[in-house]
Each structure stands twice: as C-alpha cells, then as structure tokens.
Amino acid sequence: MPADDDAGRVRLQKVMSAAGIASRRVSEELIAAGRVQVNGQVVTELGSRIDPARDHLTVDGVAVQIDPTRRTVMLNKPTGIVSSLKDEQGRPDLSRFTSRYEERLFNVGRLDADTSGLLLLTNDGELAHVLAHPSFGVQKTYVALVRGKVLPKTVSRLTAGVELADGIIAADRARILPGGERADSTLVEITLHSGRNRVVRRMLDEVGHPVQELVRRRFGPLSLGDLPSGATRDLTEPELRALLTLARAHGTEGAVVR
Q1: Residue 87 known to be catalytic
Q2: What's the chain's average pLDDT?
Q3: Residue 130 pLDDT level (bands cut at 50, 70, 90)
Q4: What is the CA radius of gyration of the chain?
Q5: Where do you find CATH 3.10.290.10 in the chain?
Q6: How far is the C-alpha of 45 from the C-alpha of 16, rounded, in Å?
Q7: CATH 3.30.70.1560 residue window(s) in the chain
Q8: Closest of 63, 37, 121 to residue 248, by C-alpha
Q9: 222-257, pLDDT tens digit by residue?
Q10: Range(s) for CATH 3.30.70.580 in the chain?
C-alpha cells in the first residue's frame, strides 16, 4: 500500500483536515460534491494527492493556506522606519520587527519612512510577488492630515484625476472625514490602487494641501484596526484566506494535481 506522503504529495482529504477546513470524512464529502479546487481545477477523486508546498487549494471559492511553513504578519509601521530589512545608511529598518519571528520574513511593498500604518511581512514569495507587482493594483486606503481646509470641490478633483509629473492619477474614493476639519488642517481619507511612489502625498500637494501626517489603514481586504504602532500580529484565518483569494485571482496557479 502506498504511503500517504509520496515525494511530498499527500492525500487531499488529509491536507484539508490538517489545514482545519473539516474532518477527513467531511472533507471527502466536500470533494465528492465538487466544492474543492486544486490549481483552479475541480477535484472529485478521493484518491487525489497534492503537494502542500506547491499546489493551491480552494474550497467553495475561498483560497486556503495549506503550507504550514508559510507565515504572513501585519505590522503597524511607525514613522521613522524605512521599508528595508537592512538600511545602508544605518537608519531604523524593519529588522527590529522581523527578528521577532523564526521565519525569514520580508516586506510586501513599501511605505515611506514618514508614513505609518499597515505593512505586510511574509515568507511567502509567491504571495508577495503578486501583491507588490504594479499590475496587481490592490486597493489601499490612507488617512491624511493635510494643511488647510479641504473643500468638496477639491475632493472631486482627487476622484476626477490629478495631473502629476508621471501622468494623471485619480483616487478610487476620497472624502473628508467627519469631525476631521480643524481651523488650519483637515483629515482626508483616500482610496486608490496605484503603486506609484509617494502618490498620495503628491496628489495632495498638487491640489494645494500638503500632507502633515499619513497613515495606511487598509490594504486590500485587510484593516489595520486597533493594532498599536510598532506592534505585529499574524493574520487571522479569514484574513489570510481573503488575501490569498484576492492574490490568486490575479496570479498564476501551481502544478496540476495528480
């Protein structure tokens, strides 16, 4: 009788059970009902084997992380930290946060040193590549404290499109936050999917409201919530599944199940 593990390949229902999806018996029912996909293909054969390190598993349209060696962490990056694991100029970098973990984590994309907020750290190279690639266009939401009183017509300019040196850019959404208006400054929330460098600051500069403080509050389906500045936490299972589902919709699938 063949072993459950054959050159890294494991019976599908065993992988599903280990991932906490369901018991092996219930997993077999899900497979037989056509509710399970591996690398984008519906699998109904109970004897199917997959490689948790290479293959992609989806149940009822939701991606599941089945490789136990992969880890993705949310960081509330403080200001003054550069988005690098080792800064050649000796500035404070992300190593002070990645050193908390046994895995070798690296950042997904970047935040400017003077921008705080949600930054992902992971050892999942495939996930990081898809999320950070300019063509992916994951939506990000920022809250900016800007100089001056922002008027509704200025918000309309941000969503209609602002011409920058590298081309016109429009926010997906923008609004003045209730209670955020002050005598000499305004809190503005901006959502956009551009990966251009310092794009939020440049947009607000262009409409006459330089940024004084900038925080990234959302990245795709993830929300910073009440995570304190400088704190890290592992993504919850629902968060990770939402992120993987989003990423795999834009990325490439892995090997074919056998």
Answers
A1: no
A2: 90
A3: confident
A4: 22
A5: 10-68
A6: 14
A7: 140-219
A8: 63
A9: 999 999 999 999 999 999 999 999 888 876 443 333
A10: 72-135+226-246
Architecture of domain 10-68: Roll (3.10)
CA 200 to chain centre: 18
Identify the CATH number of the domain defined by range 72-135+226-246: 3.30.70.580
214 DSSP β-pair partners: 144
Q: Is the pTM of this model over 0.85?
A: yes
67, 87, 93, 112: the catalytic one is: 112
Tokens representing 183 are 């005598």
What type of residue is 196? R
Q: What is the pLDDT of residue 214?
A: 98
> CA–CA separation, 217 vs 246, rounded Å?
18
pLDDT digits (tens, 9 = 90+) for 7-56: 678 999 999 999 889 999 999 999 999 999 999 999 999 889 999 988 99
Tell me the CATH number for domain 140-219.
3.30.70.1560
Q: How far apart are CA 194 and CA 211, in angstroms?
A: 18
